[in-house]
Amino acid sequence: MKNKLHKLRLKVFGKLGYKSFSPLPSLDDQKKYAETLKSFFKQNSQKSGSSHNEWVNNSSAVVLDIENNDPLNFTGWKTIQETMFHVAKEPEFFAVKDSIIWKKYRHGLQETKVGNPPIYKLYPTSSGNFIHHAYNLLQLLQKFPFEIKDLKKVIEFGGGYGSTARMFYNIGFKGSYVIFDLPEFSALQRYFLSMLNLYKKFSIKLTGELDAELANSDLCIMTWSLSEVPLDLRTQFLAKIGKPQYFLIAYQKAFGHVDNIQYFENFKRAYNDYTWFEYEIPHLKANYYLVGKRNA
Fold first, then answer.
1. pLDDT tens digits, residue range 131-163?
2. What pTM was computed for the model?
3. Number of domains in the chain
């Protein structure tokens, strides 16, 4: 009986939670942004070969989804679910709930109806993926406390569908946000951030070019991204970004034939003018956080 009552409460709470998701833009804007997204691939048939074969395959799958499906439901697409939509484990939610993020930035974790993300059972006004992104940020803030609003520029290597960028603007960031990614994912990010009225409102740059746009950042975010590309691309990207004040990195033990543990040991030695904290994620074995701050 108790279990049935719990399920009933969750069902009711879940419906109320989804109603509290931030609304969709007007129908005219929805149509405009969807057409812009789909037309991008008609005009840009060239595919990028600068990533790992697995990500080239992922990008091709997303192109097919965009061409054949309604982007309003993109978080349900197979490739997005498998590579960009991680539902936070319970330890992540409770860590966020007991942290400065919850006290200061809880309002910024309200989910949107764009993409039709599933509600998060522990906090139905958000999604498990959004809570996971907050947990990622928590790793940096609990080691090096600072005000998000004081950051002037953020660089993100591999931005998913733009959810982390959305989170930063939701919680008070007003600076420049640059996402380096494959063109297919940049197009999806543009769609998502446009639907939220963020793309034109703020200084957001979506690029796959290794150019000066990547330099002079306060924070570089590379969560399960740098660790999933060939070594030559890692080297080229790091050469362009220089030395940001903060790094927020997450990686898996190995990807393909690359030993990422050894790679990031070498990485820390190369950036020996930083204070580093590195640790395995207790509930995600063989996955690690690495956060750092430049000394002086």
1. 999 999 999 999 999 999 999 999 999 999 999
2. 0.91
3. 1
Please report how many Cα atoms fall inside a 13 Å half-sphere around the Cα of residue 186, on the Cβ side.
20
Tell me the C-alpha distance between 144 and 141, whole Å: 5
Q: What gap in Å lies between CA 57 and CA 63, rounded to an integer?
A: 10
The first and second tokens of residue 168, run together, are 């930063």
Cα separation values, 105 from 108, 141, 147, 262, 278, Å:
5, 12, 11, 35, 25
Residue identified by tokens 């097919």 is: 64
Q: Distance between CA atoms of 53 and 210, rounded to whole angstroms?
A: 20
Q: Is 120:272 a contact under the CB 8 Å cutoff? A: no
Paired with 250 in beta bridges are 223, 289
Q: What is the CATH number of the domain that holds 8?
A: 3.40.50.150
Q: Which domain holds residue 67?
A: 2-294
Per-residue b/e over 76-105, b at no fewer than 16 CB within 10 Å? Answer: bbebbeebbbbbbbeebbebbeebebbeeb
